[in-house]
Amino acid sequence: MDYKTRITPAKEDAVKALKDEFSQYTGYIFTDYRGMTVEQITALRRTLMKKDAAYRVVKNRFAKIALAELNNQADNQLVGPTAIALVRGDEANVVAKELFAAGKEGTPIQVKGAMLDGKFFSPQEVEAFSKLPTKLELIASLMGTMKAPVQKLAATLLAYVEKHGGSVSATEEN
After folding, report:
1. Which residue from 122, 115, 93, 107 is spatially nearest to 45, judged by alpha carbons?
2. Averaged over 20-44, what is the pLDDT?
3. Sequence-ordered list of residues with C-beta below 8 angstroms from that of 66, at least 6 positions apart, any chain
4. DSSP symbols for the chain
5. Which residue, of 1, 16, 87, 129, is most buried by count of CB atoms within 10 Å of its CB?
6. φ and ψ at residue 32, rounded to 5 degrees
């Protein structure tokens, strides 16, 4: 006897709601939340909300269908108890950092993998990705590097002016 899933309007609505929510995000980090308390999940949700991300406990079957309708296949990650961190734009590694930080602080969370910009990441790759500097940190580093030569020139000129007592004679100018 073959088992056939009965499609009900409630299930269709649940899948549609997930699809609508998933479509607002560009990345998904899959986690196993087994052993987490309600307080820990709530604290993690609040932390991720500040990073413009969401953390949802999902029913695997509904999530598979919703992601498939968005042309994303995540069957390997959607096994067992699953919660998904939904990420927008360049905040993916910041969210991954928060998930790994929560794990180090004693929250029993385990990253199963991720799908970012249509590419799959293993748990090890997600951890490596979380250790990369953020976009703002890279920009700040670049700006510091670009500013250094100008700053050194200004300091050298100031030292020259101070050495000569603030005045430069006409013979030195030529």
Report:
1. 107
2. 88
3. 15, 18, 19, 22
4. ----PPP-HHHHHHHHHHHHHHTT-SEEEEEE-TT--HHHHHHHHHHHHHTT-EEEEE-HHHHHHHHHHTT---TTT-SSSEEEEEE-GGGHHHHHHHHHHHHHTT---EEEEEEETTEEE-HHHHHHHHTSPPHHHHHHHHHHHHHHHHHHHHHHHHHHHHHTTT---HHHH-
5. 87
6. -100, 120
* Residue 104: predicted pLDDT: 85
Q: Which residue has the tokens 């499609």?
A: 7
How far CA 148 is from CA of 97, 143, 144, in Å, comes to: 30, 9, 6
Structure tokens at 135: 């976009």
Alpha-carbon distances of 113 from 75, 95, 121, 156, rounded to whole Å: 11, 13, 5, 52
Task: Give residue for tokens 């990369």.
Answer: 132
| CA dist., res. 77 & res. 30, Å (int) | 6
- Reported as a single tens digit per residue, the pLDDT across 4-27 is 667 778 888 888 888 888 888 888
